[in-house]
Amino acid sequence: TSIAPRSVRSESLSFAEQTRLVAGDTVARPMVLTTGQGRYVGGLAYQVVRASPAEVLAALGNAAELPLMLPRTKAARLVDVTRRGARVELTSGTSLVETTYTVVLKRATATEVRFRLDPSRPHGIRDLWGYVRVKPLGKGQTLVTMAVALDVGPGLVRALFEDKIQRVILDTPRRIRDYLEPKALARSDSPAAAPRM
Q: Parallel, antiparallel, or unpaired for β 85-93 and 73-82?
């Protein structure tokens, strides 16, 4: 890859993590948090994506593209758009366990999209919140940072699948990369993208 470790430098990233990112790996930091409101799993995950920040944010704002980027997401449907943000109904899971819930997606800044469970609509999980941030690295590359906290609620799903759910969550930036990079590279290689003489 053409980026140097210093270009992904961050107070929160060790030199070893920066080196792994430059090599194309996903850097994940699992987290489990128990509060009076519930038990949350998720964490932070980082990935370098060969696409522009605008391309990453545009894809995340398009309900039709979400099932192609979010692991185990079978369907996404835009419910509505209000001042609070865009409400998107997601159906996620496997053939064994499937759930439907709605998130509110809101552009917090020019480089960050936040999401949170909409508890006013039917939801098979107890709570969900997080964000995706993008940082340009130059040469059409972006550092994607994702934070997620999910409370699936008590019961068998938590007991049997919590660890697997956490791994799937933290794999999301890699899935974003695998979906977006071929599209971005195809656009840059197309004759229309070539500079005119």
A: antiparallel
How many CB atoms sit inside 10 A of residue 133's CB? 20
pTM (predicted TM-score): 0.85
How many CB atoms lie under 10 A from the CB of residue 64? 10
pLDDT of residue 62: 94
What residues contact residue 93 under an 8 Å CB cut-off, 6+ apart? 72, 74, 99
Separation CA 120–CA 189 (nearest Å) = 45
Closest CA to 7 of 143, 112, 178, 133: 143
CB under 8 Å to 154, separation ≥6 — which residues?
none
Instruction: Quick: pLDDT tens for 108-154.
Output: 999 999 999 999 998 988 899 999 999 999 788 999 999 999 988 87
E runs forming strands in 94-192: 98-109, 112-117, 127-138, 141-151
Distance CA 124, CA 112 (A): 26
Residue 195 DSSP one-character state: P
User: CA torsion, points 44, 49, 55, 57, in degrees to nearest 10?
Assistant: 0
Radius of gyration, alpha carbons of the chain? 17
Average pLDDT of 60-82? Answer: 94
- 131 close to 146: Cβ distance less than 8 angstroms: yes
